[in-house]
Amino acid sequence: MTTKKMAIIATKGTLDMAYPPFILASTAAALGYDVQIFFTFYGLQLLRKDLSNVMISPLANPAMPMPIPMPVMVQMLPGMESMATMMMKQKLKKHGVASLEELRDLCLEADVKFVACQMTVDLFEFDKSEFIEPVEYAGAAAFFGFAGETDICLFV
Amino acid sequence: MNFDKEFDASGMSCPLPIVKTKKALVDMASGQVLKVIATDCGAVKDMQAFADQTGNTLLSTAEEGGAYIFMMQKK
To answer: Phi/psi of residue A148, each to 5°?
Structure first.
């Protein structure tokens, strides 16, 4: 049986959107898939050693369940984003959902390959020393080299 | 049922029961049985799917006092 492959493009850097790439990648790896995640634009935030700036905001996010109705004028107040992030992290913990750091470590342990988009690393002037290791740096053509052979390819 | 190793995934949510079951199987020998305890009801479908896709055999699934007990035989 040939090894199945999955490629994911991770483009978002908010707490809610950070979960799907790591959940799917770690699960696929557990099922025996060869997995690569290509991190580009805001997805690059997920490669930083310090993930504390990966947050969630109720602002412009009407689908986010809130304990009490919160007018937009209140949501925009300073500190609301930190508060929403703290509450979401508590909720995740209470429900036994792994932290992003734990899921990311599980991906690396299972040999999921992390590739950072060089163009957006330069665009946002990221310092590579901010990123975890191992991460490879490549462009779109390199992504297609792997993605073209995959069974599953997702854009998150 | 006899088993060779036990992994308690109680309180863990998707995808941890599956990802960690896979990890628990790594150092086991072919034919050995891993007992997995989980409280996530999603694990019932997921354990079967894991077995189907990895070639390991899900010998049994049982519910005991709000927890699910899986017996997974390594291929």
So the answer is: -65, -20
Asked if pLDDT for residue A77 goes beyond 70, the answer is: yes
Which helix (H) or strand (E) segment holds residue A123: the answer is helix A118-123
Which tens digit of pLDDT belongs to each residue from A106-125?
A: 999 999 999 999 999 999 99
The total of structural domains in chain B comes to 1
B contacts of A96 (beta carbons < 8 Å): 11-13, 16, 39-40
The chain-wide mean pLDDT, for chain B, equals 96
How far is residue A104's CA from residue A101's CA, in Å, rounded to a whole number?
Answer: 5
What's the CATH code of the domain at B42?
A: 3.30.110.40
Q: Does B41 touch chain A (CB under 8 A)?
A: no
Strands B33-38 and B5-9: parallel
